[in-house]
Every structure is written in structure tokens, then in C-alpha cells.
């Protein structure tokens, strides 16, 4: 864990280890520093005064990786592009659920993803990526990063270890593999990437090219409550905090967290690019972190009921819900190994796009909108919205159907959601 040296960074009481949901209420914040306010105030300032010129110089040396003997371990408050009290408390708490050494927050999920990939990959290197990914990430990897000399080679999320190995060999033929990037479960098809296999592939690449690629996992769909990829060998996790962690559809934010070595590179590039998060949104996320577990648990219970209804409906061709994987197949084994929960976001397929649009237009309780992880149920047609920028042929290769609909079940009464779906499907 990061920064365990202060009394307000307690991990245990009288030998009893505190759970993350308890630490969300107070970890990293000392009321004595803020007029005894129970909640951190919002620090709306661009810059911070130094006690001495020497202290300011030492902070900047530490921040720029030029620390000298006698300098503090971490930079003190300097300028809100680098650090801010709200940002620091938020990063401390974000690291707890995933047992990360460091965390950094960003102005959006895509800011976190792009800054992380640009910090860990370099011109001439290759990113080995799973597919499908969130549409913005897919476009970043396939359309933008090649302009900077970074190539990509993909493998399907549900690929076997032998297939991932084959993709890795193709990637190494193009240049050194710097990053293995995955999203699991996938958005929106809910395929699972075998993270243990990715870990073994990274070891193989290290033997062949002399340097181990960083394993970066987008953990937005199930994390931080339903999946912990750092415990399975991942180096860095990225999140759209807009989704489950924010949880109220009222903010845009992202994060990267993981081991200190790669996070030093990510944090350094964030300072140069200015992709940091503002203090007010940090404060809002601190509010949301206090309830993230109970919200995600409640939504997952509701999703199980909604998915069961859809599975039995004659107009629904397929339900892509992780709780329906059965036993004895590759996906079921991966789910059992690396997932704690089936989550509350999944997809289902109707006959075609026209049927999907008729159903979506008839809904009266659910919100027809992109995004996911809010307290309200959100539903959309990804092929025409979130993944519109992905080449249509690639979407077909990734397993999209014309009638694929994504639903993110919120914390409403699931019986009400089922009633809404029932009347809307009548019009499909």
C-alpha cells in the first residue's frame, strides 16, 4: 500500500485489518488539517505557498525524478497540475480496493488510457491488444498511435493461450512488445480475457526480447469490487471513473493505478500533458467511493434478475451475461479464476437494428443513453453510438450483431425494470 506512515492512513486497528469500504470514510485525510471538518473541503487553488525556497526546490526535484539526499520521499504541495489535497486523498483511497502501490487520477477515462499507453509504449514498439475494446480505446490504438510509430497486433478477448502466443510472435516480428493491453470483460460483448495466460505470455516475451512488457488492464466493467487484476499479474489498471466509481452520471474522470515503477512514468507524463483531474471532481469522487461497494452489489443483484427475464423472452436471441456461462468451458473457468462478481453491465441481441430501435424507443423507465455504472439503468445500441467509430467489418469480426443492445442495470427495483422491458419488447 502507498504511504502507510501517517496516523490517518490506518490499515488496521488492534491487529484487525480494516476493509476498503471502511477505509473509504477516512483514509488519507486528517480533519486536524482542515478546521476539524469531517469531510475534506474543496481546495480551489492553482498554486501552493512554500515554507522556504529550499522546500520548494526539493519538491520540484522529487517531482522531476531528480531527488537528492535529504529530500522528502514524495513532493509536497506545489501546483494543482501536479498535486492537490483533494487529488492526493482520492488517489490514496483509490489504491486501497485494488491493493495498488500508486494511483493517479485524470480528467477522463480516455485521458487515463492515452496517457498510460503513451507513457509505457514508445516509437518503434508494439502494443499487443485484446479486441474488442471500448470504441474510443480501439480507435486510439488503431488510428492514432500508429501516427507516432507505435504499432498494434490484436487477439480476440476469448482467445486460447496458444492463439495469444501466436499473436505475440507476430507482434515481436514487428518490433519490441512494450505493452499487453486488455479490457476484461469486454465492452460491450462481455467476453473474458484470460489474465493468467497473458501473464505467461509476458514471461515468454521477456525471455525472447530481454524485457517484459507491461500488462495494462481496463478494469472499468467489474472493478474495483468485482475483479482485482493486479493480484493476477497485471502491472497497471485503468478506469473510467465516470462509470461505477463515480456512479451517479454527474462527472467525467479516469484513473491509472498499479506498481510504482510504471506509475512513475504515467504520473510524470500526466504532469507534462496536463491530463490531471480538477479538485471539485476529486471531491465528488470521494463522496462516491463511500458507497461504491453497496451500489455495485445492489446493481449486480438486480442485473441477475433482469438477465434471467431476458434469457427467457422469445424475442431475445442471446443474453451475454457472465452469470450464464455454465460449467466446463474455457469462459467459465476464466470467470471462476479471476472474477468475484458477474457485474451489472451486459449485452443482449435482438433480431436486427430496427427491432432494437423499436424496443429502445418504447422504454419508459430506463434511460436511453450511453455510459454505464450509474445509479439509474442506462441502455443503448453500441453499433450506432459508442462503437460507431470502429470499422463495421471489425465489429462483425468482434462478434457484434446488428441487434446488439447494451444494458447497465442500476439500483432501481428490478421488477420495475423487467416490467419496462416487457412492454418495450412487445413493440420490437
From TrEMBL:
The keyword Metal-binding does not apply. One of its GO terms (cellular component) is cytoplasm. The keyword Transport does not apply. It holds the Pfam family Cys_Met_Meta_PP. One of its GO terms (molecular function) is pyridoxal phosphate binding. This is Cystathionine gamma-synthase. Its cofactor is pyridoxal 5'-phosphate. InterPro entries: Cys/Met-Metab_PyrdxlP-dep_enz, Cys_met_metab_PP, PyrdxlP-dep_Trfase, PyrdxlP-dep_Trfase_major, PyrdxlP-dep_Trfase_small. It comes from the Bacteria. Keywords: Pyridoxal phosphate. CDD domains: CGS_like.
Amino acid at each position: 500500500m502507498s504511504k502507510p506512515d501517517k496516523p490517518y492512513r490506518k490499515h488496521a486497528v488492534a491487529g484487525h485489518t480494516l476493509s476498503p469500504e471502511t477505509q473509504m470514510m477516512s483514509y488519507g485525510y486528517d480533519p486536524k488539517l482542515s478546521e476539524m471538518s469531517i469531510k475534506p473541503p474543496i481546495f480551489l487553488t492553482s498554486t501552493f505557498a512554500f515554507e522556504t525556497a529550499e522546500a520548494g526546490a526539493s519538491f520540484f526535484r522529487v517531482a522531476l525524478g531528480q531527488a537528492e539526499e535529504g529530500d522528502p520521499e514524495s513532493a509536497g504541495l506545489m501546483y494543482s497540475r501536479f498535486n492537490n489535497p483533494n487529488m492526493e486523498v482520492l488517489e490514496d483511497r483509490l489504491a486501497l480496493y485494488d491493493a495498488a502501490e500508486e494511483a493517479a487520477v485524470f480528467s477522463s477515462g480516455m485521458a487515463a488510457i492515452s496517457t498510460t499507453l503513451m507513457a509505457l509504449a514508445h516509437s518503434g514498439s508494439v502494443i499487443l491488444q485484446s479486441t474488442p475494446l471500448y470504441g474510443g480505446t480501439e480507435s486510439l490504438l488503431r488510428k492514432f498511435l500508429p501516427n507516432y510509430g507505435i504499432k498494434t497486433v490484436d487477439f480476440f478477448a476469448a482467445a486460447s493461450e496458444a492463439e495469444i502466443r501466436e499473436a505475440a510472435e507476430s507482434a515481436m516480428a514487428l518490433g519490441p512488445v512494450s505493452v499487453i493491453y486488455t479490457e476484461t470483460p469486454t465492452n460491450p460483448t462481455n467476453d473474458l480475457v484470460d489474465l493468467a495466460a497473458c501473464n505467461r505470455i509476458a514471461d515468454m516475451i521477456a525471455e525472447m526480447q530481454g524485457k517484459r512488457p507491461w500488462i495494462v488492464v481496463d478494469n472499468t466493467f467489474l472493478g474495483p469490487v468485482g475483479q482485482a487484476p493486479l493480484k493476477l499479474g497485471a502491472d497497471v489498471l485503468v478506469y473510467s471513473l465516470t462509470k461505477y466509481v463515480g456512479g451517479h452520471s454527474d462527472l467525467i474522470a479516469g484513473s491509472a493505478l498499479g506498481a510504482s515503477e510504471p506509475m512513475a512514468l504515467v504520473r510524470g507524463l500526466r504532469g507534462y500533458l496536463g491530463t490531471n483531474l480538477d479538485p471539485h471532481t476529486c471531491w465528488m469522487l470521494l463522496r462516491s467511493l463511500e458507497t461504491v461497494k453497496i451500489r455495485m452489489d445492489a446493481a449486480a443483484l438486480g442485473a441477475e434478475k433482469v438477465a434471467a427475464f431476458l434469457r427467457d423472452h422469445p424475442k431475445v436471441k442471446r443474453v451475454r451475461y457472465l452469470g450464464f456461462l455454465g460449467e466446463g468451458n474455457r469462459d467459465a473457468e476464466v470467470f471462476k479464476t479471476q472474477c468475484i462478481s458477474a457485474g451489472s453491465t451486459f449485452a443482449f441481441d435482438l433480431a436486427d437494428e430496427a427491432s432494437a430501435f423499436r424496443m429502445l424507443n418504447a422504454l419508459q423507465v430506463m434511460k436511453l443513453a450511453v455510459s454505464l455504472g450509474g445509479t439509474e439503468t442506462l441502455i443503448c445500441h453500441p453499433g450506432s453510438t459508442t462503437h460507431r467509430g470502429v470499422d463495421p467489418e471489425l465489429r462483425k469480426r468482434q462478434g457484434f450483431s446488428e441487434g446488439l443492445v447494451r444494458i447497465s442495470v442500476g439500483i432501481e427495483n428490478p421488477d420495475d425494470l423487467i416490467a419496462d422491458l416487457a412492454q418495450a419488447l412487445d413493440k420490437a
